Amino acid sequence: MTDTSICLRASIPVDQRLALRTATVRLADDFAGVYGAETIERFLHSSYDQFASASASTVPHFLPLLAERFARQRLTALARVEGLRTDGRPVVLFLCVHNAGRSQMALGVFQHLAGDQAVAWSGGSEPGFAVNPAAIAAMGERGIDISGEYPKPWTDEVVRAADVVVSMGCGDACPIFPGKRYEDWVLDDPAGLTVEDVRPVRDEIERRVRALLAELNVPAQR
């Protein structure tokens, strides 16, 4: 545990400590027989530390919830990598720099079209503070709500668990694991653009996601 983690742990407000304990219980139930309390607590608290020291520090009351969601994703990925739990569904990871625009839009489209037939995650090399409002609005026009998403980093277990890694502008910062399928989608960054300007990006993302689903033999539901 780093000095920074120790300081963060000591500074966690009482209400958030209680929320993290509750989150630990929920995660322990979800991963019963897969991971023990020590592993679950380590992933939960490291996830909390990542948000507390970065983008999510602007919304402290939501930190335990964000940490729980991220820890669940990471534990799910680790269990897949270690062969402890897998359901055979393909997993796609969308990566960009801030995880605030393109990768979040791609995640939303993928989940909307694939439903529960496939799994999608997203991450950024330098996570931003919030999802781009213009991206949220443009996606809302398609009936896809990404307002509840949040910028987050990628982790090794999440990348290793993915069958396909789609990068969008993160360049050399994108993690490379031998033998994994990678795609590089060249798309305009929605940062600073109006909703009108984001619409073509959204539509191109949808076209590419549909093509990817077809390649993965996952029928688009809509």
TrEMBL record:
Taxonomy of the source species: Bacteria, Bacillati, Actinomycetota, Actinomycetes, Micromonosporales
GO annotation, biological process: response to arsenic-containing substance
Keyword entries, A-Z: Arsenical resistance
UniProt-listed InterPro entries: Phosphatase-like_N (IPR048716), Ptyr_pPase (IPR023485), Ptyr_pPase_sf (IPR036196)
NCBIfam families, per database record: MSMEG_6209_Nter (NF046112)
Highest taxon of source: Bacteria
Database matches in CDD domains: LMWP_ArsC
Family annotation (SMART domains): LMWPc
Protein name: Protein-tyrosine-phosphatase
Pfam family, one: LMWPc
Phosphotyrosine protein phosphatase I domain ranges (all copies): 90-215
Organism: Asanoa ishikariensis
